[in-house]
Amino acid sequence: MPTIALFGTSANPPGEHHREIVRAAARMFDKVIIVPCGPRTDGKLTVNDIAPIHRAIMSDLAFRTIAPNVEVDLSDLERKSFTKTYELDERYRRYGDAYHIVGMDLVSRDIGGIPQVQTWEHGLDLWNNARFAVVLRVGIPFNPQDMPPNHILISPERSGSSTEIRRNIFEHKSIIGLVSPEIETYIGQFGLYREYKKHDRIFVNISEPRIIFFVNQHSEEARRLYQEVRHLENQENPNLVVTIGGDGIMTHAIRAHWRRRVPFLGINAGHEGFLLNERVGHLTADFFKQEFVLRSSPLLHVRAVGDDGGVQEIMAVNDAWMQVEPGNTGWFELYVDGRRKFSEIDPVEGDGVLVATAAGSTAYARTMGATPMHYSEDKLVLVGSHIIKPFSWKQGTHLHNDDAEVRIVNADKSGWRKLFGFADNLKLGQVNEMQIRLSRIASAHLLFTPQSDREKIDKYRFPKN
Question: How confident is the model over 297-326, as pLDDT tens digits?
Fold first, then answer.
């Protein structure tokens, strides 16, 4: 069976010492899986101090390029949960011989005489039956008698701590060498681990653009602009995704590459271009080297329960919705944050119910009558299509809680009014229920010229017919 190393860690932030452990493990195991933990209730509360999206992005930035056999499991951050070690063991041991990467301090008997591992839930069973990859640490003596029965050793070339990194940031000391350059840049851009609030607008420069292009091949203008800068294309090691076309091209690019954690820059060669920069006559490398405003646009996490009970979980850039089959009127139960707003007895009646991100508020939601929002807002738009009842709900509402969850349920239990699910025009088939909220791990960083950014704000505030 293949060997799997499981590295549960706070990665808050991920440092060079974490990366060195993963490099060493990647040489020893068939696969290495890093699991950044969710919220803690065991006294280690520092992981709760910054938004999960930041830890998700930093984890991808830190570990994605170390080796082909390394992957990052962000499920704890997405679900706002903390998977305990014995649960990880049960989850992964069916796929191979799972080893848990732990520090020497967690198996040492020097403090209190009992290894910390044995104090965990099912700790004694883990100690006796699970497999461990013990990381040797400077300052903690190695005693073979301290080791669990089933173990191997990892000896990284350096050690460190996230506590030291956070302390240096808070005290305005250098973290060069403690984290990778990408992590250092990200922490600085978003003002993490400091008391002051981050700036409203974040400015970035890309001095050496390495680009993945998405081009509307049906547009002569888009094809011409691409030819002018195609020499900047770099599929293997990009630091920028550029779309040339309309908003649909941008949506497709984000769905394909949000996990790369590089910014997206759109150039309008279409119509509205809400997510794009304004039209340009010509393109050169210098265009991509200017100062841009960075805006974060969160994605949707969509959980759809099919008519057969099957579950689909996907990400959506713009929107997700349930609609009735043509020729019928749908009945919809509606819940917001677990509280029922429209019930089976008194449902929403109409063609469909849609939930959109702020970026998606300019698309399908706008055609339903929803008021557009600026694409960087962490809010949801909830709106109905051709609503018959209640009549006063035709323009929907904005949900200002950035952790709000909308649940839509088929209120017709007879099975006659069949409902179908969609996410960014991806057909999910017949569904009985959808749960939709802003993702805690998925976000797109959109780049705009300062002029385009100012114009976008006015465009959202005063949309034209």
Answer: 999 999 999 988 999 999 999 999 999 998
Six-digit token string for 58: 């930093």
Residues 270 and 309 in one domain: no
Residues pairing with 435 in the sheet: 303, 407
Which residues are tagged catalytic?
247
- Which one has a higher pLDDT value, 155 or 272? 155
CATH number where 229 lies: 3.40.50.10330
Q: Say whether both 404 and 364 belong to one domain.
A: yes
Residue 236 sits in the same domain as residue 302: no
**Is residue 132 domain-shared with residue 249, that is, in the same domain?**
no
CATH classification at residue 136: 3.40.50.620
Record the pTM.
0.90
Give the alpha-carbon dihedral of 320, 322, 327, 332, to 10 degrees. -140
What pLDDT, in 10s, does the model give residues 348-376?
899 999 999 998 988 888 888 888 888 77
How far apart are the C-alpha atoms of 279 and 206, rounded to whole Å?
A: 20
Beta bridge partners of 297: 444
Nearest to 85 by CA among 97, 95, 74, 100: 100
Rounded to whole angstroms, the Cα distance separating 101 from 132 reads 6
Phi, psi for residue 443 in degrees, rounded to 5: -155, 150
pLDDT band at 45 (very low <50, low <70, confident <90, very high): low
Residue with tokens 């933990």: 37
Q: Which residue segment(s) compose the domain that 348 sits in?
A: 298-446
Say how far residue 162 (Cα) sits from the centre of its chain: 22
Q: What is the mean pLDDT of residues 403-428?
A: 92
User: In the chain, how many domains are there?
Assistant: 3
